[in-house]
């Protein structure tokens, strides 16, 4: 296995080449699109191969000693850079290899990515069945996405990770804008791309700083360097904090955290399987993975950890509050995703990376299930996404209903389901870890209650209560085919049982297996600062009970407002209409960004507005930058002209002068050279006579 | 009594005839003969001084000059023949191959 795990990302790449390349070729050659069965067999088959290989790698890894569970494989040396000087004064070669690394952290990621990814691919066969033009394009992009995502999580250095990072961003762009004839889809794709770019910019600077400080981009070498240079955490804000902060900005862009979360809800313009795969289960968790991977850096930058925790918990709160008032079923789930990602960052921020990754895994299952379920609903209702026009769908879509119900209970934190274990692990850590704080726990519990509330609201509005379908839609409602519902069922099973991989210690069944498994991946992080508060298990149980109670309260309130006494909700909305409209409009964040950075109106907008900035920058570009370039060109031209004059009139003149001098004398002297012997003899005689007469005259 | 002055006058006359011959005659063979005259005037001079100074080395010189003159005449005639074969003339006016 050890030498073959690099094949895992390769299969989707082959799928992409086959589907995309063959599809394009066939369309160009015959005008026909490739046959659908061929397309989906290639797409799903390649992911299945990756999944099987991932599983066997996982099993092989399990059989090793926990500390040997790191495999590295260098496919080829990618960049042969020059030797550069690092901050410490050493020379370091800028060498980057196309190398993969498999350790407990990345094996969890590849299992989630290939497992959930495979199910979503299968589901897509049914969901995209009506697509004609874009069928092969869709699956080609999906496979490319899988390739990039697997590269991201398997990379053994930051730069290759960044390749995957950008690659998934590209695929996200392509798939959000999949419906190419819809302007809103194109706009959303652009928005996602541009917002991500802000984060990526910080990521690149962070990477460059890593290289200048540690002389490498390979994870192992960087983390060893960190351990060596920073044996204790950086108490004053310094280079390590900057690196951590910059990487976190990159993660915030990719994982939709404040202030860069605005793109994710708009990304729902893409087909629903895309939302499930990219914008819920895998790509958006790349930021979490990256921060967890860099925990050697983060654990030594406590100030940044605090920022991560605050941003995470604030995002969780903000997104959950927005999700409570959305009417579009996919937007509820989108904000829910943002909120759950906030949870994961909060976990990372309190130094509980393993808990964050655990939540990432469970979340991938139930959130993918929720999205796919919503896709099933949307498909059944002919692309109706407004929950106000649903209701009472339970009897039409029984399978969708119960699978989504399980996912809802799981995300709401009902004991025994996946979300319960992972969420409570995070809440407990945010309370007990040295970096944690009671406030984090309180907000976390509040968010848990809100999550339960808005998820149940979504369920009630969609599946229960009176039917609000328009008559022509109602006559066509049907349960989705089994190619779509079977993945739902499998994911539902996962949503129930995946939590049991990480049973908390207070159950008395031994320590947390999942965290134990992940431990080697966090070996290089800082462990010194006191063990977590060894509170009694009773405290943990008490806190868990509180959070379950709050979640129950959320469910109860949702039941009251949206099923039993709908007028209560309306009355409440009336009373707090101001607050409601603020939250309903998503706190006007989009409008604020638009005002500040995009369109530009008055005041600040005029100053910071992108249009004006754009105009200013373009004027700067035209006049100063281009001017400088053109000036240097004309300057060169002038100098060349002067130099040319000197050359022609001075240097060449000198050369010609020499030649002309010789020519002049030769025209004179050649006359003597008659070739007649007697003339020469005459000169002799004259010469001799002159010489003799000279001597005679001198009187010698 | 014939003294050194007569010899010298004779030799000067002969030499001058030779010089004039070399400078004025067109036929290469005559030029060659004029050169011969000049050489012989020199020989006359050498022998005259040898007798006057009672030193035989002048006569030795004269013998050398005669020898060299013979060789020179041979070479000169050879060149003239070669020239004649190429140019079909022995007229120095018409031979200006080295004209610049």
Structure description:
Chain A is mainly α. Chain A is 71% helix and 4% strand. Chain A has helices at 7-30, 36-62, 104-127, 135-154, 158-176, 183-214, 219-229, 239-254, 263-266, 272-281, 286-293, 295-298, 302-323, 329-349, 353-380, 398-412, 418-432, 438-463, 471-474, 482-497, 513-518, 537-564, 566-575, 577-584, 589-598, 604-608, 610-669, 677-698; strands at 71-85, 91-102. In chain A, a hairpin with a 5-residue loop joins β1 and β2 (91-102). Chain A is elongated and about 150 Å long. Chain A starts with 6 loop residues before the first helix and ends with a helix. The model of chain A has no long low-confidence stretch (mean pLDDT 87). Chain B has a single domain (4-94), classed as Helix Hairpins (Orthogonal Bundle). Helices cover 78% and strands 0% of the residues of chain B. Chain B has helices spanning 4-24, 28-53, 57-87. Chain A binds chain B through residues 669-678, 681-682, 685, and chain B through 19, 22-24, 31, 92-93, 95-100.
Distance between the termini of chain A: 116 Å
| Cross-sheet strand order for the largest sheet of chain A | 1-2
Number of beta-strand segments of chain B: 0
Shape summary of chain B: elongated
Round the Cα radius of gyration of chain B to an integer and report it: 17 Å
Largest sheet descriptor of chain A: 2 strands, antiparallel
Q: What is the CATH architecture term of chain B? A: Orthogonal Bundle
User: Total strand count of chain A, please?
Assistant: 2
What is the end-to-end distance of chain B? 54 Å
Assembly state: heterodimer
Q: What gross morphology of chain A would you assign?
A: elongated
Q: What is the name of the CATH class of chain B?
A: Mainly Alpha
The number of domains of chain B: 1
Strand content of chain A: under 5%
Characteristics:
heterodimer; A: 700 residues; mainly alpha; two-stranded antiparallel sheet; 28 helices; 71% helix; elongated; B: 100 residues; Helix Hairpins; 0% strand
């Amino acid at each position: 296995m050890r030498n073959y795990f690099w094949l895992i990302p390769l299969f989707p790449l082959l799928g992409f080449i086959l589907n995309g390349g063959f599809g394009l070729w066939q369309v160009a050659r015959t005008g026909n699109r490739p046959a659908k069965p061929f397309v989906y067999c290639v797409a799903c088959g390649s992911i299945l191969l990756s999944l099987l290989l991932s599983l066997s790698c996982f099993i092989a890894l399990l059989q090793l000693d926990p500390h040997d569970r790191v495999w590295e494989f260098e496919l080829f040396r990618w960049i042969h850079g020059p030797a550069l000087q690092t901050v410490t004064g050493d020379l370091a070669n800028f060498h980057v290899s196309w190398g993969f690394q498999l350790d407990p952290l990345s094996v969890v990621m590849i299992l989630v990515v290939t497992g959930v990814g495979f199910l979503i691919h299968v589901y897509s066969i049914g969901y995209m069945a009506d697509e004609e033009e874009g069928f092969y394009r869709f699956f080609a992009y999906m496979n490319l996405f899988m390739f990039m995502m697997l590269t991201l999580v398997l990379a053994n250095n930051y730069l290759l990770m960044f390749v995957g990072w950008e690659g998934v961003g590209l695929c996200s762009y392509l798939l959000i804008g999949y419906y190419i004839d819809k302007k809103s889809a194109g706009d959303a794709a652009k928005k996602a791309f541009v917002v991500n770019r802000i984060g990526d910019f910080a990521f690149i600077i962070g990477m460059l700083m890593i290289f200048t400080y540690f002389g490498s981009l390979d994870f192992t070498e960087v983390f060893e360097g960190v351990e060596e240079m920073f044996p204790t955490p950086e108490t004053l804000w310094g280079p390590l904090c900057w690196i951590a902060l910059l990487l976190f900005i990159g993660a915030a862009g990719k994982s939709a955290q404040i202030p860069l979360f605005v793109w994710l809800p708009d990304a729902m313009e893409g087909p629903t399987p895309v939302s499930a795969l990219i914008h819920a289960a895998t790509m958006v968790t790349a930021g979490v993975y990256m921060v967890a991977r860099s925990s050697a850096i983060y654990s030594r930058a406590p100030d940044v950890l605090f920022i991560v925790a605050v941003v995470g918990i604030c995002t969780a709160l903000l997104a959950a509050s927005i999700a409570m008032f959305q009417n579009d079923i996919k937007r509820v789930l989108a904000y829910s995703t943002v909120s759950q990602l906030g949870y994961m960052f909060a976990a990372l921020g309190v130094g509980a990376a393993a808990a964050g990754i655990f939540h990432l895994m469970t979340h991938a299952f139930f959130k993918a299930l929720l999205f796919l379920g919503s896709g099933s609903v949307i498909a059944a209702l002919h692309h109706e996404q407004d929950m106000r026009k649903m209701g009472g769908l339970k009897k039409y879509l029984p399978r969708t209903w119960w699978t989504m119900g399980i996912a809802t209970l799981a995300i709401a934190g009902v004991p025994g389901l996946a979300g319960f274990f992972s969420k409570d692990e995070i809440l407990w850590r945010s309370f007990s870890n040295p970096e944690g704080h009671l406030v984090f726990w309180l907000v976390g519990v509040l968010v848990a209650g809100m999550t339960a509330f808005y998820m149940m609201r979504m369920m009630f509005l969609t599946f229960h209560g009176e039917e609000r379908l328009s008559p022509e839609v109602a006559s066509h409602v049907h349960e989705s085919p089994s190619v779509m519902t079977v993945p739902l069922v499998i994911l539902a099973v996962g949503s129930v049982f995946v939590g049991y991989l990480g049973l908390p210690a207070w159950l008395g069944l031994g320590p947390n297996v999942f965290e134990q498994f992940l431990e080697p991946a966090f070996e290089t992080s800082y462990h010194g600062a006191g063990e977590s508060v060894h509170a009694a298990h009773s405290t943990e149980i008490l806190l868990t009970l509180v959070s379950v109670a709050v979640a129950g309260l959320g469910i109860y309130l949702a039941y009251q407002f949206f099923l039993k006494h709908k007028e209560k909700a309306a009355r409440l909305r009336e009373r707090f209409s101001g607050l409601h409209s603020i939250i309903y409009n998503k706190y006007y964040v989009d409008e604020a960004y638009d005002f500040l950075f995009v369109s530009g109106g008055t005041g600040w907008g005029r100053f910071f507005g992108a249009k004006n900035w754009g105009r200013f920058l373009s004027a700067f570009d035209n006049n100063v930058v281009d001017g400088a370039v053109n000036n240097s060109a004309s300057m060169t031209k002038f100098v060349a002209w002067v130099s040319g004059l000197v050359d022609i009139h001075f240097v060449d003149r000198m050369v010609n002068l020499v030649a002309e001098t010789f020519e002049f004398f030769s025209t004179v002297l050649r006359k003597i050279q008659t070739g007649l012997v007697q003339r020469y003899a005459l000169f002799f005689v004259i010469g001799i006579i002159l010489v003799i007469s000279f001597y005679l005259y001198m009187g010698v | 009594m014939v003294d050194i002055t007569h010899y010298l006058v004779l030799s000067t006359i002969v030499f001058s005839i030779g010089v004039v011959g070399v400078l004025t005659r067109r036929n290469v063979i005559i030029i060659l003969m004029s050169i011969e005259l000049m050489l012989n005037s020199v020989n006359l001079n050498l022998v005259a001084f040898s007798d006057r100074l009672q030193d035989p080395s002048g006569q030795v010189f004269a013998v050398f000059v005669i020898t060299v003159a013979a060789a020179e005449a041979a070479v000169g005639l050879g060149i003239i023949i070669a020239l004649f074969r190429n140019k079909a003339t022995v007229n120095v006016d018409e031979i200006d191959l080295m004209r610049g």
